[in-house]
Amino acid sequence: MAERDVSTVRFPDAGPPEDVEVLIVGAGPVGLSAAVELHARGVAVAVVDQAREATLVRAGAMGHTPRVVEHFRRWRVLQEIRDEWTFPPEWNKGIRLVTSLVGHELVPTPRPSFVDTGRGAAEEALRRPQTALVQVFLRHLARHGVRVSGGWRLTGLREDASGIEAIGESGGVIRARYVLGADGGSSTVRRLAGIARQGEHATEKRVRLVVRTGDLSGRIGPAPSGTNIVVNQRADGFLAAISPREWRVYAGPFPLDHEPTEAELLDTARAAFGFDLDLELASATTFYHATRIAETFRAGRVLLAGDAAHVRTPGGNLGEGFGDVVNLGWKLAAVLRGSAPEELLDSYDAERRRHNWRVADFALRRSRRTQATLADIRRIGVPDDADLSPDARQRREAIGTLLRESRLGGDGVTFDERYDDSPVIWYEDGQLDAEPPWRGDGYTDDPRPGHRAPNGVLDPYGGTLYDRIGNDFALLVLSADREAERAFAAEAAARRLPFTVVHLDGTGAGEVYDAPLVLVRPDQHVAWRGAALPEGGAAAVFDRVLGGSRVSPNWREPHMASYTEFYAPQGLRTRGTVIVVPGRGETQRTYTRLGKRLAADAYEVRIIDAPRIDQPDVLTRLGDALTEAAGGAARPLALLGADTGATALAALVASDDTSAPWWPDALVLAGPAGGATGATASWDEELDLRTHCPAHRAVLSGDEAFARDALAVPVPPELLDAAYGRAVELPHLVLVGDADPLVDRETLSRAVKAAPAARLAVVGGAHHDVLNDLQHRSVAAEIVSFLETLGNRLVPVISVESSTW
């Protein structure tokens, strides 16, 4: 019999990175899927887990709804998950209601049809054990270079204004912008964050068993039903195959203080199979029909998802965890990218916690209804499977009728993720008063704001609307008017939002969406719809959807902020931040070319004003400017100074104020000013002293704010003494041009040799503006190469083994 082994999935044992944008604690399906989601959105992410492996015997959820399959498809792991079957797929015959595995069917179950391929949804449900998902997610993350580290136990969290530190049991520290707790119902992250839970405690307990069998094919056939709900006098609940020789069985309920024996549990399992057989108890996991939901899903820089945020009566809780991930992923990415204010993250709690309470209340009601029906059935009495008498047949028919009449569907739980009390949805006038109440057992496509956008097939080759949207914001256009389309596209580009336009004329979608314009969020929820732009235009819509605040475009004029900023290209995770400090006479515009070049290599660049070296408190003012510019900066953080900007930085870090918000991971000093001055007789002479690059000479000549003759201003001796008087334990890259008369090469060389980790790089033919001379491409490449070594103990990625030149 075909069988695949995912009984144990080992987590990688490589250590986690020291610095990351989002640290995920918990390497279960929710934590790993969060890493998949965030990495796809360009976020630097890592995962840690205290365990070293995931085991099949604690199989967890196995059934995955069509909504979950939509997520698998967008994450590009669906086919790989399908391929990870652990028992032959032909065992999947729907969920059968039976008296035992070999007994009587109580309610007929429609069988899959080989010839009828019609279906009512774009995706279908799927059954795979959690370890199969974990294995697929781990492979996917490994292919994309995302670090997952087993055996790393979290013991502390320490938050400050710019980030949060996760402290490990062995003393290791990981710094992140945010920590996402996906570490289960007994979440350490939730406990350390001081987040309490609400909800009803259980009054009894149940046990989920995994039992191992021998070869049963002679008794149950080569292709038995893999998923069954058993109802008889001794057993009730799921009997579901995990592998050809491992099955999940439910036992109970038991009083809270009762510990059932192994014999007691195995007797229940045998009753579910319906015949006597040898069984080995592989695992027994207690669970409860109860609701425990965190009081908030966000506390500062700590976020919760999956069981860490909500535990409830079994049935779809893993799917709700995936829903958490999809809701949170685009919001975290937008905040980290600078496209949205941090307040957007509050909407994650507002939307998902309300939804989870609805689902939990429905699950508890359904469980109680099921238990009441079971009591009625047992009063009727479930006949022995061998009893074929007319009375037994009548009782089975009566039981089947009871089951049909009491059965509640779950379409609303699957698809109705409506967010009807959200601060980031543009609701229509009167919409919330007119909407029908949420029902867990029913669902009809609803295109109004706050609802999951109806999905459907767009082309004859099977492509769906969600395929077309991908990870983007999407404007669905069902009219010939292009004005709104252009307005939304321009506003999205200004805010650096992933955005696409989908033209749906002639697809039949107009009958579903009932509006010519529909804005869909990256989590496939309708954010706004209308016939025309509202007052305030597309900007007003995005203001609401992104948390009520306008954000900056990719390049900000200096008068709009105290620093100019350049971002990594859309879709690439930010590899770190570089804060540039100009020198004498220079402005923020002086370093536009450098900013764009470093940003193209996925570094965020922030350029502040040049320090006024004639002010006695120049270092205090510089520290204040760096503190502002370092706010929310992705690590590693490098400070890059030119001329007196370099000298002032060297003096500032000599204070060894490692607790300062701006304290860097590395320093780049370009043409640090020495004692020499650069007085010149003309502008052309000053340009010759600075740079021979025609493009940069034009930039300087055209910048009205540039202060000419500034190189004639001497550097205060006390600033030079502070800059060169003390070696600092920071990685340094020092760049000087060999045609630069203003650099004190002898003093600089001594300082570099005295530093614990410094390199002096001399640029052939370059002048004082070494960052902006003819060699600017090579200089930028040298800076990037240096930055790339910061995560590798300053060891270059490339080494030359042999060369003939």
TrEMBL record:
Single GO MF descriptor: oxidoreductase activity, acting on paired donors, with incorporation or reduction of molecular oxygen, NAD(P)H as one donor, and incorporation of one atom of oxygen
Question: So which cofactors does this thing need?
Answer: FAD
Q: Which parts of the sequence belong to the FAD-binding domain? A: 19-363
What keywords sit in the KW lines? FAD, Flavoprotein
Q: Which InterPro entries match?
A: AB_hydrolase_fold, FAD-bd, FAD/NAD-bd_sf, RIFMO-like
Question: Which Pfam families is this protein grouped with?
Answer: FAD_binding_3 (PF01494), Rng_hyd_C (PF21274)
Q: What is this protein called?
A: 2-polyprenyl-6-methoxyphenol hydroxylase
Q: Which organism is it from?
A: Amycolatopsis sacchari
